[in-house]
Each structure stands twice: as structure tokens, then as C-alpha cells.
Amino acid sequence: MFSKLSLSLLFIFTVTATPLSATTRTTLEFQAKALLQWKSKLKDKDSVLSSWSLATTPCSWLGITCSSLNISQINLYGKNLTGRLDTLNFTPFSSSLTNLDLSLNFFHGFIPPSISNLTKLTTLDLSENLITGSIPPSLGKLTKLTTLYLSDNSITSTILTEFGNLTSLLDLRISNNSITGTIPSSLSNLVMLNVLDLHNNFLSGSIPAEIGRLNNLTVLGLHTNNLTGTIPSSLGNLTGLSLLYLFNNQLSGTIPAELGKLVNLVHLILYHNSLTGSIPSTLGNLSAVQLLWLNENQISGSIPEEIGKLRNLTWLQLQRNNLQGTIPASLGNLTELAHLILYRNSISGYVPSELGKLVNLVEIDLSTNLLTGFIPTSLGNLKKLTTLALWRNQLSGSIPHELGSLTNLVNFVVEINKLTGSIPPSLGELRNLTHFLLSGNQLSGELPKELENLKSLTSFEVAYNNLSGNLPQSVCEGGALEFFIVNGNNFEGPLPRSLKNCTSLVRVRLENNRLNGNISEVFGVYPNLVYIDMSFNELSGELLPLWGGCHNLTILKMSNNNKVKGTIPPELGNLSELQVLDLSSNVLVGEIPGALGELTSLFNLSLSGNQLHGRIPKEIGRLNNLETLDLSSNHLSGTIPEQLGDCTKLTKLQLSNNTFNGSIPVQLGNLASTLQELLDLSSNSLTGQIPSPIGALRMLQDLNLSHNQLSGSIPSNFKDMGSLSVIDLSYNELVGPVPDNKLFAKAHTQWFSHNKGLCGQVIKGLLPCNSISVDNDHSSSNKKKIFAVFISVGTLLLFFVTIGTGLWYIHRRRSTTHGDADEGTNRAALTYSVWNRNARITYEDIIAATEDFDAKYCIGRGGYGTVYRATLQDQQVVAVKKIHPVEDENPVDLKSFRNEIESLTNIRHRNIVKLHGFCSSRRCEFLVYEYMERGSLASVLSTEEGAMELDWMRRVRVIKDMAHALSYMHYDCIPSIIHRDISSKNILLDFDFKACVSDFGTARLLKPDSSNWTSLAGTHGYVAPELAFTMRVTEKCDVYSFGVVALEVMVGKHPIELLSSLLSSTEQGMLVKDVVDQRISGPEGCVADSVMQAIKVAFECLNSDPESRPSMEHVSNELSISKPSLKPFNLVNVSELMN
């Protein structure tokens, strides 16, 4: 009763001369009650609705406007209100409300159909809220609407055909939602429409030609959707259009010539589609255009001369197309142009000197084209220029000294050209320069002293030129230098003194020069340093303990300086990220510190060619990732520690030219599955017999035990070392027969010379064993006789088995049907094997270890076979892939396949799963691989726990590992190998997350004269698109698959959704931080830079044109070079990494 009385009294105070009717009071009272109900349901954090009370008239409340004493406008824009929109009562305002603005709040829920009762509404703005659900069809009844804003919500529905009834509409904006379906042609009824903005949704289908009827349209924003089809030529009728945004879709076909009629157009943005054909010359008629972005399409042909008529053009982007021809000189007429971006095309010819007229240019990027000729001196006129990027062309001549006038220049990038001459001193005037990149040219002469004026540098890169003289001493005085890359020149003299306190350094490459100076005085502590190589110089001084403070260091190379002395500081053991430590060929003394055993990430330790003494510390056995250990040519003594057998990933062990004594540790036999390249213990003082476990190193290629005092006989199991290509046992005291097998038959005599009594007919120059009396003992004589009998009987048995096998094979070929042989016969009937062990024993071991391939040992299934885990008698765990039977297998194909398997067993690379062998019987065929503890990359990414363990640094390493492996297969194997089926299921991880490429079930050797297989192969979702119609497999197919897997590593799941949306560019505007795997916190610092670099390279590999994809060799090299991002990780969007 009190509230009604109070409200009535309030109305009296608002009346002037005319008394209120009962109807008016009732309507306003009813509306006020409704608003107070709104207030009760809304969370008002800032108390902005405090004026909404019975103490004042509602016409004076915040956001309320009255007309004829009825509420006509409700404007609560940006009031930080929270609540459900669908709980608000709009009915009381149906007869009076003309403007409803609830934008920029936190309203959620759905749009209530009751809003359609507001029949007098002319403006409805619900944008920038959290609204979900569908758009009610009843909104089509609001025929007086002139403005409808629903943008920036989470609405999921289609665009209503009923919107075609809103014929008074001037402005329709539904962008940044999750709208699906097609654009209804009924929108063409909105003939009054000025703005149609539907961008950043999931719209599909084609652009209706009927849109061309909207003659009053000034803004058309359909970008960042899934639109397909061609651009309608009818858009050329929209002569009032000023903004045309169609980018980030899947539009195809040519650019309609009719767009040249849009004389009022200011922005024409069509980038990132699949547009083809040439740029229509009619675009030269767009006299008002300022932004012309046609980049990232498949546009071909040349740049039309007519583009030079666009006098108002400020930004021209044509990069990442298939443009050819030359850069037209008419571009010199574009006097307002600020950005000229043409990189990643096939443009040839000269850089036009006319570009020097464009005095407003801020950015020129002509990189990665086929440009020739000189850099025009006229570019020195461009005083506003901040970026000049001409890298990866074929430019020649010298760098014009006129470029020294570009005092605003920040980025000067001309690497990988054919530039000659000296670096002009005038470049020292570019005091704002941050990136000075001249690597990969033919520049000569000395660096001008004036370069010391460049105090803002973050990257100074002049590698791989013919430069000489001294390095600039003050190169890091500005305190910002991160990349100092000067390797591969003829620099001499001292290192820059400013490096001492340059804590910003990330990557330093000084190798292959003639630099001198004391490293003890030049270097300090670098918390961000990841890579430093100062090898092959003439440096002196000592390796100080302060290097232990560079906690992010992964590569430390200081080899072949010959003057670095002192001891190895134990503090190096603090470098937990260190992967490579190469201090070889210096004059280091003292003992090897046991603290190096803490470097558990280390895979290369090279200390050879020094004057180190003492024993090898037992702690080295803790380096379970170590692959190369080279301690040769020192003064090390004592026994070889048995703990080296714990370095179970060693592929190369080089301990020659020391003074080791004692016997060879039997524990080296533990390295049977990894030691592949070299075991060199030569030129020591080792005694005792060669332990038989050394014969278990069946993957070893090079064995050198020469120049020791080894005695006894060569172990008989040496005959099973089928991978050996070199074996040197000379200068020992060995006796007895040399094993009789293919390797020893081809061996050089000198490999066995100067021993006490080696014998055998297999080596030329050795006496037959029956002519040498090694021991007069009667039992020894009996053993020899028994041995001779066994040889004779074995020879006869082998003869009869060979004849019998031949007869059986002929019988089998003639027979049309066969009964099944019994199990024992099947197990014995090995028809073929390629193995590093005794084939029959291995076959039996596999059958026993898997209990005849019992399902409980199964760890995976694929299209080509089933994988089992097998623990052999020596406790070695292997993965066995039982190949699915192939009906009607062609004998020629089978022979070819087996030849390839034999070749694959010889592959030696740290990132390729080792293929131990292949066995074939009438019952089954199987491959035996190295066992990888963590299984496939796909399985690790599929679990929360696996994703958490696979942090960003590990993910980057996984991608690098894949790249190195594929580069090796494509470029280091002869003939080359194409994998054909790269997927996350075929990338396996060991316990330490080292990635190895696996499953050569579909791989084939690529012969130079081969066209490869003609059958489609690979895993769905990873197959290169061209295979669908060319059926020809090339290395570029592997490159594409690599790109998919690399993105999968970063996204955390197969990137099909991301790739699909990027084709339509829905995600392109998103930040990278929102696209990567959300299960782990975002990367930071240098790791973030590496993540972005990996994603960028992945996108390059996914180019739809195979010829435009990089080679895996290029990818491998690119990922090995850290490049800092110009923007923080949290601010980089996806499109920036796709450019």
C-alpha cells in the first residue's frame, strides 16, 4: 500500500500544468515495476542502478529516457551488469520503447521471443554480451528496426530468412558468433541497408548474387567464415561500397573484373582464400582505394601496370601467391604508399628504381622471389622506411652507400643473395637498426668501424661471407643483442669486449674464423644463452667456472682452438639443459670432473685432443642420453669403467690414444642395441682377452682394438657382427682362427697383422690354421680335430640341406594344394631373414617371448601389421611387428621388399627407430624394432598425464627430432627413402621423450629413375592433398605429413578442426596462445619463440602446392636456428605465423 502511494505521489511532482490521466499513470507505474524487477535479477557490481528506486520518477533513472511520460529508451551500455536476459520482462514496454541498448555487459541466456512484442523498436543492441541459443524468428516482426546489433556473443543458429522482412533496416551486425548455415537470399530485400557485417562466424555456402541488389550498401563484411564458391560479379553493382571484406574464407575462382566499378571503395581485402587467375587490370579504376590486400591466394600472372593508377593506395599486399613477371615501374606513381609487400612469389627482373619516389614508404618486403640485378640507390630517398627485406633473391652488386640515409630503418634483411663488395660505412648511421642480417652473400673486406654506432641491435648476422678484419668491439654496448652470428668468414683479432656484460645473448656463432683473444676475459654469465660455438679459431685463456651460470645453454662448442688451457670446471655440471659439450683439440689439463655426470640431457661429449689425465669418472655412466663419447688423444689412464655400459644410447665410443690398461669391460656388450658407428679402443695398453659380449654388438660398423696387448683368440661370435665394415685387430697378441664369414673374407690383411698367431684361409696373407702350432697340449690338438670334423660334417650337411631345399621349392611350385605343415616344421622353415643375430635363434626367441604372438603381448595394431612387446632371453625388450599376410604376393615384389628391408637395417640415426631385423617363414613374417618405452606420440598426446609431461621444450624437441630424421632419410640415404606414412602414431618416444620415426611398413626406397608407387598410401588426415589426383609419392608428401604432425604436437590433438577453420580463416584472428594445447600453461621466453618458430615452419609445410613446400633439409636447418619473435607470445595471432 505504501509503495503504490509513494509511486503515485512521485508522478504528481513530475507533472507541470496538465494533470495525468489514469491510463498514463498506470502505464508508467507498470513499466517502473518491471524495471525494478530487472534490478532485482541483475548483479550490479558498480551500483550503477542505485538511482532506480521509488524515491524518484523512472524518467530520471540512469539509462532511462521517457517520451510522453512513457519509457521510450533503455540504454544500459557498458554498465558491467550480469544476469540472464531471458528472465527480463519486456512486455510492459511494447507500446512505447523505441531504443533498447544492453550492449557491453555480461547478459547471458537466450534472446526471449517477447522482445518481438516491442513493435515500435527502431534500435536493438545486444552486442558484446554472453548470449547463447538461437535468434528467435519472431524478431522478423520488428519491421520498424533500423539498427540490429547482435555481434560478439555466442549465438548458435542460422541467419533467419525472416530478416528479409526488416525492410527499414540500415545497419545489421551479427559478427563474432557461432552462426552456421548459408546467407539467405532474402537479405536482398533490405534495400535500405548500409552495413551488413556477418564476419567471424561459421557461415558456409556461396555468397548470394542477390547481395548485388543492395545499392545503398557501404560496408560488406563476410570475412572469417567458411564461404565457398566464387565472388559474385554482381557485387560490382554496389557502387557506394567503401569497405569490402571477404578475407579468410574458401572462395575460389577469379577476382571479378566488375569490382573495378567500385569507385568509392577504400578497402578491398580478399586475402587468404583460394582465388586463382590474374589480378584484373580493372582494379586500376579504384581511385579511392587505400588498402588492397590480395595476399595468400593462388593468384598467378603478373602485377598489372594499372595498379600504378591507385594514387590513394597506402598498403599493397600481394605476398604468398604465384605471381610472376616483373615489378611494374608504374608502382613508382603510388606516392601515398606506405607498405609494399610482395614476398614469397616468383617475381623476377630488377627492383625498379622508381620505388625511390615513394617517400611515404615504411615497409618494403620483396623477399623470397627471383629478383636479380642491383639494389637501387634510389631507395636511399625513403626516409620513413623502417623495414627493407630483400632476402632470398638473386640480387648482386654491392650494398648502396645511399642506404645509410634511411635513419628510421629498424630491419635491414638482405641475407641469402649474391651481394659482393664491402659493407658501406654509411650503414653505421642507421642508429635505430635492430636487425642487421647480411648472412649468405659474397661480401668481402672489413667491417666498417662505423657499425659500432649501432647501439640498438638485437640481431647482428653476417655469417657465410668472405669478410675479414676485426669484429666491432662495441656491438653489444646497447645491451639488447641476442643473436651474434659471424661464423664462416675470415675475421681475426680479438673478440668484442662488449660481450662480457651482454646478458641478453641467446645465440652466438663465432666458428670458422681466425679470432684470437682470451676467453677468460671476454665472456661473462648469460642467463638466456642457448647456443654458443667458438670452434676453429685461435682463442686462448681458460674455461672459467662462470660458464656454469648459463643455465639455459644447450650447445657449448669450443673445439679446435689449440690454445684454450686450464682444467674443465666442475661447475659445468650445473648446465642441466646442455646437449652438446665439445671442448676437443685444445690444451686442457687435469682430470675429467665427475660433475659432468649430472648433465643428463647430454648426447654429445667430445673432449679429444687435449692433455687430460687421470681416470674416466664413473659418473659418466649416469649420462643415459649420451650418444657420442670421444675422449681420444689424451693422457687418460686406469681401467675403462664398466659403468660406460650404462650409457645405453651410445652410438659412438672413441677412447683411442690414451694409456688405459686392464681388460675391456664386458659391460660394453650392454650397448648391443645402440652402439652403431664406432668402438675405438686402439693405441692403449689393454690386456686380457677380447670379451665375447663385444661380439654381441651386431649393429656396430667400425671396431678398432689395434695397438694394445690383447691376447687369446677372436671370439667366435664375431662372425655374427653383420654390420661391421671395418675391424682392426692389428698389433696385439691374438692367436687362433679368424672367423670365416663375408666380412672377414673382404677384410684387409693389415687389420690382423702383427699378432702372435692368427690363422685362417679367409684372410690373404695368413697361414692356414693346420700349419700353425699354437699349443702343443694334447687336448688342444683334440679340439682342433673335433673342430675340423665339425667343419667337414657341417659342409656336407649344408650341401644336402641346400639340395633338399631346392627340391622342396620345386615341388612346392608344382603343387597346387598343400596340407598345413606341423608347427615344428613351420618354425624351422625360415625362408628368409635379415638379422643382426642368428636368424633361427631369434625366430625361436620371438615365438617364445610372445607365446606365439599371444594377444596379451599386443601393444598396437595398424594397417600393415600388429605390434607385440617381446622380452628376449637376454632381457632385451624389442617391438615385434607381425605383418598382415598379403594374398597372391608377387615373388618379384617380395624380393624387392626384402632387399629394401636389408637396406633399412643399415640405417643409423638417433631419431629413427632401429630396425634390428626381419624374419620370414611359411607361417608368418615379422619385423623386429627397438622398443620405445613411451609408445606413440599419438598415445602420449591423448592423455592428460602424457600432455602434462610433454612440456613445450619437449614438444619443440619432438618436432626437431622428426625433422632431423626425415632430412636424413631424404638427403643422406643413398638412394633416398620416402617414408610415405608419417603420422603421430608412427612417431615413437623413448623414456626421455626423444622422438624417433618408426614404421617403414609403407616406406620404399626412392630410386633416381623411379616414379614411386602408384597406389595411395598413408594415414587419413596426414596425406598430402596432391596424392588424391597425382598418385605420385615424392619427398614433399612427407613434408606435408610432417607439418600436420608438428601442428598436432602444438595443438595437442589432430589439427583437422584448426586446419579447416584456417582454410576459412575463422581462427586466423585468434591469438596463438588460444590455439595451442590448453592443458599446459603457455610457453615463455625463448621457449615461446621456439614454439612460434615451429608452428610457422609447420604452416610452411602445409602449402597446398608441393613445390612451394620447403625441403626437410631446409626445415631441419631452420629449426636448428633460434629466431626471436618481434612480439610477445601472448600478442601473436595465427595469421602472423602463416605469413
Automatic annotation (TrEMBL):
The keyword Cell membrane applies. SUPFAM superfamilies: L domain-like (SSF52058), Protein kinase-like (PK-like) (SSF56112), RNI-like (SSF52047). GO terms for molecular function: ATP binding; protein serine/threonine kinase activity. PANTHER family: LEUCINE RICH REPEAT FAMILY PROTEIN, EXPRESSED, MDIS1-INTERACTING RECEPTOR LIKE KINASE 2-LIKE ISOFORM X1. It is a single-pass type I membrane protein. ATP binds at K882. Residues 853-1126 form the Protein kinase domain. Coiled coil: none annotated. GO terms for cellular component: plasma membrane. Keywords: ATP-binding, Cell membrane, Glycoprotein, Kinase, Leucine-rich repeat, Membrane, Nucleotide-binding, Phosphoprotein, Receptor, Repeat, Serine/threonine-protein kinase, Signal, Transferase, Transmembrane, Transmembrane helix. It is an enzyme of class 2 (transferase). It comes from Dioscorea cayennensis subsp. rotundata (White Guinea yam). It catalyses: L-seryl-[protein] + ATP = O-phospho-L-seryl-[protein] + ADP + H(+); L-threonyl-[protein] + ATP = O-phospho-L-threonyl-[protein] + ADP + H(+). This is non-specific serine/threonine protein kinase. The chain crosses the membrane at residues 786-810. It comes from the Eukaryota. The keyword Amino-acid biosynthesis does not apply. It is found in: Cell membrane. Its EC number is 2.7.11.1. Pfam families: LRR_1, LRR_14, LRR_8, LRRNT_2, Pkinase.
